[in-house]
Amino acid sequence: RNIFYEETVDSTQKIAQKLAYEGAEEGTIVLAEEQIGGRGRMDRSWHSPKYKGIWMSVLLRPNIPIMQAPQLTLLTAVAVVQGIEEVTGIQAQIKWPNDVLINGKKVTGILTELQADSDRIHSLIIGIGINVNQHIEDYPEELQNTATSLFIEKKEDWNRAVIIQAILLKMEKLYTIYLENGFYPIKLLWESYALTIGTRITASTLTGKIVGKALGITDDGVLLVEDEQGTTHRIYSADISV
Ligand code: BTN
User: Which positions are annotated as binding biotin (predicted)?
Assistant: First the structure.
């Protein structure tokens, strides 16, 4: 397997994209100690301080239509929850679609980007950012109420390599299940870790806000929200607040 390790990068996503374009094989991993231009979802930046976290991109080449790409993001969130639990004993939860939270604060963000030929995925780049050894004062003030780290939760420094290994092993296991049996078994696991299913949420999309009860996810990974009038909305991309 190909593992690319760098001290400082702009974004591991960019490097993985370039490698993907050059034909790198499935399972290629890009890791960095620090990102200067770490990217989050919705054009946000991702705070990636040196030696404090896991800043990693994983290249997959599943033979699936674009529509199903969100399934792999959900699968990754499950792998992160399981990996964190195995190493630290902390039970994290998932907020749709891809935030991993501990005690309601964000410990991991996942960003999936893809390259496709017509409808088929050519490469899928899953970026995983895990806050590991930050102390609360390492965060900019505006993140201190919403972000956490494994250190903050357990007052213990963690070996990042051990966590990376645990998560990649979980991911490989889940991906094998996914390729053999489809998304359904992954969906069940995802739902068992999900925070927002069955509760009242506000989904802020690019076109407006939908307030209602989160019913669950579809087989494609789309979030179903039932509004006060009883209409069910299919949410593809949004920020969720409770
Ligand atoms: C989010 O907005 O929640 C997603 C954050 C994703 C951050 C990771 S860190 C490794 C990879 N490289 C990036 O620039 N972003 C992702």
Answer: 35, 39-41, 106
